[in-house]
Design a protein that fits this description.
It is a single chain. The protein is built from four helices and ten strands. It has a four-stranded mixed β-sheet, with helices on both faces. It has a three-stranded antiparallel β-sheet with strand order 1-5-8, with no helix packed on it. The protein has a three-stranded antiparallel β-sheet with strand order 2-7-6, with no helix packed on it. The longest helix has 8 residues. It holds the Pfam family DUF6886.
Amino acid sequence: MRPEPGQVLHFSEDPGITRFVPHVAATARQPRAYVWAVGADRCPDYWFPRQCPRAMAWATPSTTDADRERIIGTGDRVHAVEYRWLEAIRTVRLFAYRLPAASFRPFGEPVPNACVATEPVEPLGPAEPVGDLLRLHEEAGIQLRVLANLWPFWDAVTASTAGFSGIRLRNAQPRT
């Protein structure tokens, strides 16, 4: 599930959204109200239930061979989740909304990781079921690691030369 040219996507478990209105998320680090979406490169970050904590790493031009082997293994990207989320990943009904890219601007430093709009945005059509999230990972060639606890992997990733992102880590098991 990826956007077509001129589109960005918003992923949601709610299939009935008819208008996206800017808001400040409860966990936001910035005070401005936004509508959030992602381009094709960041869609895999959202092939999960909304509240699912995940740690993701990928190879970049500056990733060392040692870090690639230690963190990423085969392929160019790895996502890690905890066992307790596996059933939700298998059964969630996730939807994607196609939104007009012209309404959005890149967000994130030093490399943009999302797109934001400051005005309300209407979807280009009805929500589309995303489908089998495990299959999406497989088809995209993304390893999906299932771990008892995300923190050892996260600590290794953030100390490496790999690119990385963590989403909803506050929902992960406590550090052991």
